[in-house]
Amino acid sequence: MRNLSNLVFFHAKRLVSNLSFTSLTLFMPLVFIIFFAKVNESDSVAPTSEIAVINHSDWISQVVQAHMQEENTHYFTEDRSEAFQQLEERELAIVYEIPENYPEQSIIAYSLNGENRDPVWEADLIQSSHRAIEHQVLNHYQIDPASLNIEAQQPTLNFMTKGIEDDLILMAIMITLYMGMGAMVTTADLEQLRSQQVLKRGITANSNSWLVLGSLLLGYSLAMLFNSFMTMLISCLVLNISLANLAPLLIIILSMAFFYNGLMIFLFRYIKDSRIILGFGFLIPTLMFIMTFIGKELDQFEMIKYLSPFHWVFQYIDRGDFWTTIPIVLLYAGVLFTAGSFKVERLLANKK
């Protein structure tokens, strides 16, 4: 076990010191993340009047809306997916979501611009809720409002702002895309070790082909994850992103690391030229990324998006549903790894 850990850290350290690998998995994604985040920030001003309200509360729809100004009732919509699509495309500045058990639960204000709020609509909702409660109480006790000289206490209605982190989505795209390119550098490195008979001598010395291959793959994975996590942490510090929101990104990075390991061992088995492998390094991740958008935009090619792990990563980002997305990425990784690693002694010794 100690021998395995020493080999893992040796290969990880060797790869991190490789300028090509570190440039692709750390410097390049970091530069593009910060650049596009700053560009996005400068173009993110949206009119605060453009809002949508998704209502799940019967009390709001049956009682409160009747007391609101007519122009403020036009913002209510039943199509949640369309509202968030318009928000992502910046056709809306805010999407309010009223929970079913409101006012016990807070209204959530979603915005791409941080704590963006519409004080006019919120004031109308609060005043209308106040009038609705007042009328309900007076009607229940059959009291004429004109006979009272009491000012009713205005209810406190809580709002919670929840920003959709565009920067996290950008980080997920850039880190995983360049992880794929970095994986091709590791595959070329693996092929060079095989062509130089290093792997064959390792099998003879250790008498365990899985120890040799396992130490290489674990070392490569450790180096890839280290650079990806460093990219993520530096991006968060530069862009002032809360580290508390990084759990989905960590899951994506780990799952894609497994996928790229499977792809790496698959290419290692069937391609014997490190130059061709490096060429594939830029082609394969980019092609998988493009497949996702072609399948999304063109109905006749819809099926091809399901072949790309990026499709399932984006589904996880959009829906937050782990069990119907990330396991599929891991399944792809398992299939590629199994197809590439059978008869591992022959694989490492460069035999057919």
What are the main properties of this structure?
elongated; single chain; transmembrane; 352 residues; ABC-2_transporter_component; membrane; 6% strand; alpha/beta
In words, what does this structure look like?
There is one protein chain. The protein has 352 residues and is α/β, with parallel strands linked by helices. It has 2 domains: 2-40 and 166-348, no CATH class; 51-163, no CATH class. It has helices at residues 2-16, 19-42, 58-64, 70-73, 80-88, 119-140, 166-195, 198-206, 209-239, 247-270, 274-297, 309-319, 326-341, 344-348; strands at 51-55, 76-77, 94-98, 107-111, 159-163. A 5-stranded mixed sheet has the order 2-1-3-4-5, with helices on both faces. Helix 7 runs antiparallel to helix 9 (209-239), helix 7 runs antiparallel to helix 11 and helix 9 (209-239) packs antiparallel against helix 10 (247-270). The longest helix is centred in the middle third of the chain and has 31 residues, at 209-239. The chain is elongated, with a radius of gyration of 28 Å. The model has no long low-confidence stretch (mean pLDDT 80).
